[in-house]
Amino acid sequence: AYLLQIQRLDNSDVNEWYDVAVVKGNSLVVSHHHSKPSSEEVDENKPIERLELSPGTTYRFRIAAINACGRGEFSEPAAFKTCVPGFPGAPSSIRISKGNDGAHLAWDPPANSNGNISEYSVYLAIKNSQSTESPSSLAFVLVYRGDSPSCTVKTTSLQNAHVDQTNKPAIIFRIAAKNEKGYGPATQVRWLQDTKTSSNKRPVDKMS
Fold first, then answer.
1. Average pLDDT along the chain
2. Does the pTM of the predicted model rise above 0.70?
3. Residue 21 β-bridge partners
4. Is residue 101 packed enough to be buried (19+ CB in 10 Å), middle (13-18) or exposed (0-12)?
5. In this structure, are residues 52 and 180 in contact, taking their beta carbons and an 8 Å threshold?
6. How far from chain centre, in Å, is Cα 104?
7. Parallel, antiparallel, or unpaired for β 204-206 and 50-52?
């Protein structure tokens, strides 16, 4: 089983984590979390109060495996932002492969489109002497805008990409969808740059 916890980043007390659920599978749609921080003891004689996720709010998730011996270490937190009602959600199932002409990206439309998706935009994190390793301070440039849920980022653009070194070396993309009301939140992914492998397919590490 797995324990999933959530943290609201715009909360005044950003150190508090809240339990979401203990699940046996490897996927879960999250809409609520426990009202009390996980650091507080729970009265088993009282029902657990749950709070709904707020729209247009940035959260972080972390997950830990549980077995008969107890709970393991938590994963590195992954941030995401909930969409505002009326706007589309973020694209999902990002797939990236390397070709002779650059990086080939493909994705699925948002699960909650709230209307017809008219276009997508793809952004690439680029080298910036004033930027830090923090994803929130990186500079991004538009490398694709169109109605197709796929694109190719040319090798000439990738040469200017920022290579994130916070974990394994990776190039960072952001992909967002647009409907009649405008653009929704972007999905941010890290395209791992494993120099030891000769395979054209490289793993994608989803961040948001």
1. 86
2. no
3. 4
4. exposed
5. no
6. 19
7. unpaired
